[in-house]
Structures are given as C-alpha cells and as structure tokens.
Amino acid sequence: MEGGGGAFIKGGCGCLVAFAVVALLAVMVGGHAHIDLGGALCLFVMGGLFGLVFFAVYNKGRDDATAPESRSARSAERFGDIEPRDEETSFGPAEPIRCLECGQIMSPETAQCPKCGWSWKASGR
Fold it and tell me: Is the dihedral of CA 77, 79, 83, 84 positive or negative?
C-alpha cells in the first residue's frame, strides 16, 4: 500500500492533537485532563488505523473517478453493442413515418415527403 505509512502517522498524530484540544478545553472550563504513555499509544494506534482506512477509501474513490476505460467497459457491458448514431442521423426518425401533411409513408433515409415536399427537419430560417 503506497503512502500507507504517512497516512498512519498523520492519523495517529491527528488523534493525539484532537485529544490535546479537548483536554485543553476541559482544563479551561475548570476540569482536569490526564493521559499516560499507554493511553497516548492507544490513541495514536487507533488514529493511525483510522488514517489507513480513510486513505484506502479516498484512493479507491479517486481511482474509480479517473478510470475512463473501466467506465466505458462497464457501459458497453450494460448496453451491449449499441453504437451512438452520428449527428446527421440522430435527428431523424428510426422507423418509417407518415407525412403529417398528406399521409404518405416516408422512409427514415429521406428527410422530405416524396409526394408533397413536407419535411420533419427544421427549415433554414
């Protein structure tokens, strides 16, 4: 695990610092705070383990977010061999339609009705 040692040290030190802050606040309001070497070591180890877990989760999320080849493989697996249509054909119908003007059947390859000239494409205004 690359960088795991640094995560352990940072987590352990962070836990000790958090304890010191809480202890300082307790002393400021009139309470008492005490920690011995065994307690400090336990806090350090627990914080280090938390740091390792946090580091592993962070790296997993970062790897998943930056792996476009795995994302495309998953989508290809989910959707089969569906290829996106090019921009020219994506505006037309996928199956034959009836002309809205005269009722003539139009093939999907044609953009204009062969009988009356009606078109489903936007006019170039």
Answer: negative
Q: Residue 59: exposed, middle, or buried by beta-carbon count in 10 A (0-12, 13-18, 19+)?
A: middle
Query: Would you mind telling me the total number of residues written for the chain in this entry?
Result: 125
Q: Across-strand partners of 106?
A: 97
Find out whether 42 and 90 touch, Cβ atoms under 8 Å.
Answer: no
List, for residues 30-86, the tens digit of each pLDDT value. Answer: 998 888 999 999 999 999 999 999 998 988 888 877 766 555 555 555 555 555 555
Sequence letter at residue 57 = V
Coil, strand or helix at 64 = helix
Cβ pair 53, 45 in contact under 8 A: no
Q: Indicate if the alpha-carbon torsion angle 44, 47, 53, 54 is positive or negative.
A: negative
Cα separation of 14 and 17, whole Å? 5
- The residues near 12 (Cβ < 8 Å, ≥ 6 apart) are 43, 44, 45, 47, 48, 51
DSSP character at residue 69: H
CB-based contacts of 84, cutoff 8 Å, min separation 6 = 90
